[in-house]
Fold:
Amino acid sequence: MNKLLIATNNKGKVKELQDLLKGLDIELVTPADIHLNLEVEEDGVTYKENAAKKALAFAQASGLTSLADDSGLEVDALDGAPGLYSARYHPKPGADDADRRAYMLENLKDKPSPWTAHFHATIAIAVPGRDVHIVDGNCYGEILPQERGTGGFGYDPIFLHPEFKKTMAELEMDQKNRLSHRAKAVMNAIPVLQKLFYF
Structure:
């Protein structure tokens, strides 16, 4: 059964992962495609724990090999915050991406710049009834004091990629899909997927 479930309900992540995995001879399905309504609490203390928990839960619920990721932005001037809590980095319940970016910049305003940072991604691939495979990827850059660009999601508009002098939100999708933390993690995941599906 050459189906891989992209184990997330985040539309931005779904689109990015579909683009990154489209070269494989594997049918990519989303939770919506199979009418799976599943929320997994991310209560692990590492990216690996959260990614594995999500991949296992979706694999068990669907019977399909499932790929999940956990990712975060680690800012050196904030001692590695928000890190694991990047998606929840705001005291206000229901805060959106723009709220989180504004909150981060508020917390950085008195810190000396440049504000070096990196995005980290851990991908877990779970096969029902079998082992979980884990891979990682990183993307290094710095945080800008003003937003730039309209692409991407999350912290992309304030994360500058040093090579291109553009934020992740200003990069074309094909550029981002070569450079991002998730892209690098997917590159490391592809040999695992090939082994699982083709051999």
DSSP finds five helices and seven strands in the chain. The chain has a mean pLDDT of 94. The first helix runs from residue 11 to 21.
